[in-house]
Amino acid sequence: TKTKTTAWNMPVLTEIDVKESYYQTQDTITLRLKPPAELLELLETSVQSSSISLKLEGEDVWRAELYSSIFVDFSARLSGKWIEIVLRKEKPSQWPSLRKDVLEPIKNEIPQVIPVVKSEPEPTNSKESEIEMRDDTKNNSTNGLAEMESKPKIAKLSEEVSENIPSIQLMECNRSGLENIGNTCFMNCVLQCLVNCVPLRDYFIDGGFYKHLNATNPLGYNGLLAKHYHKLIEKIWIKGDKLINPLGIKQLVSKKNHTFSGFGQQDAHEFMNYLLDGLHEDLNRVVDKPLTNQVLSDGREDCAVAEEAWLIHKKRNDSFITDNFQGQFKSTLVCPKCRNVSVTFDPFMTLSVPLPKKTRLFVVHMFWRDETVRPKRYKLVLPTDGNLELLKAALGRKIGLHMNKLRVFEAYHSKIQKNLRGNEVKISSIKDSDIIVVHEVLSEKEVKGRVEEVGVLQRVSSPKMPTHCAQCQRSGGVVELKRCTNCMGVAYCGRNCQSQNWAQHQHSCRVMQDANCIGMPFIVSLPHSKWTYRNLATTALKYANRSVLFECNEPPEQQEPEDGMLQTFTFRPINNFGSNIVKSQPLNSTDKDSVITEVFDFLAIDWVTDTKKENFVKITEKNVDYTEDESMCTQQIEEPSVTTLQHCIEAFSEPETLTDCDAWYCSVCKEHREAT
Fold first, then answer.
1. H-type helices in 468-532, by residue range?
2. Where do runs of H (alpha helix) occur along 296-353?
3. Is 70 a residue whose pLDDT tops 60?
């Protein structure tokens, strides 16, 4: 120890790789230099203040090689075993790297920093002791910058300290391995990632975590997990151990979560969540956590709501982990009934994002419950491995209806080929040529009671009159044709042709006798209190008119036109293919205003087309008059050539519809809603 104020010549801090020894904020970049032990001991015994005065020679080189511009002024301090140089950025931003690689390297100009330590002054000297960083080369340049030599100067320590101290090198990553103590590769990979996370590593190396230890937090590990993690960091980055046993960390985490107590293989992401959460609770600056309420948007700007939610979160969770490893979700919920929008900001630590899935186009034919609204066709882009619930949810978002009010079936030759009821049905079974029909129905919540639903097909008692003889192909305009009285589907010019064709026709004659379906199938839904023959028939006629035209005789004068139309058909229980159910009878139409008590899934409208009967009707099939949604022209599949993280986040952020189990309470409706 010197009794006089004496300058010490220190080693030059020369061109160094600082990529592992810096951290940044929006406004500053902090370089961290670790001096050798001899110099560190001298600094600690000679400097009473943590503030350091220093001078950087070759500032033009520093400014040119950094990623972006910095101010000339800077500050420095002694922090534990490190010298920290704080440079201020001219423009606040997060730099992706420290070096500006686009610049060509500046030859023969290496920035040098020479610390000069002054010992404690004599009692008569009132100046504080300080460290000055300078270069022995005098500044002779006109612009105030020091002239740098082609080789860095290595200054020697004086005899009283030591000799031959090498140049100060930044700490490099050691090749340290973690011992596998029984299927713990999931834990080792997480620890290797975290110990190389520079801000977290430096926080523990500096020892600054000690003042934040929370030994009374019941959610933590009484500070033991933070201490064990510090020991791991110390062994890797300070001692440089080649093989390290992390058993202590595993045992501590296993106490809180027994999933990790054995030696089975576990999920690395799950372990990382528990480890970071444990470190957070051990380092939580909040000792007594206050009660807090969720922050609601109430129509305010997102930035104001997010800031308030974060401040509320910090009242209970305030640690280094919170500051560096947590963010916020913006969660938007839309009520399907009143369209009330609720925006909340919730904290999160990690994201489990899905990989983008292969998609394909689906064309759906939407029929509304209001018969005055024209049906509409939509084109949807859905994952190939999705289910029916995904299809209904995607369409529901487009048209503003909840998926519980949608029924889906596949139509083929005027029949319901497939009744797609279960949400677990895979849409991969749907072919491009299939006609997918979606029908809006009533919901029990809407009518506050029981709802009856039935699928309806349309049949004619006799199909359209054939134009040619089934055997000789002679036209009906030349000879008189007579139908087959069994199926009514073919006609012959005489008995000879019928006899010759019977061997071929007999196989199909029986099939056609009760399945002459026409038009588009549909679904009728009515409240149970209105489930009468009259209401069922009136509603079915309106839906049937979308795909068929009917002309009937004038009703008798004593009969209303509506009642006259109800006499032109009957309802009969059938299956989805249009065939009669064995032993089933047509619905009783004598009492049209009584509630129907029978239960059935499908009904057929059997039109009376026999001209010999008084109430016959002439039926003509027509194409459904659809309107086209803009998606039919614009919706295309754009598969990315490379999957990026942005694609995964977009897949994670896709809207979804809540299920009954996850219903959200709407503050406007005062009820739980399956919101989007």
1. 495-509
2. 302-314, 320-325
3. yes
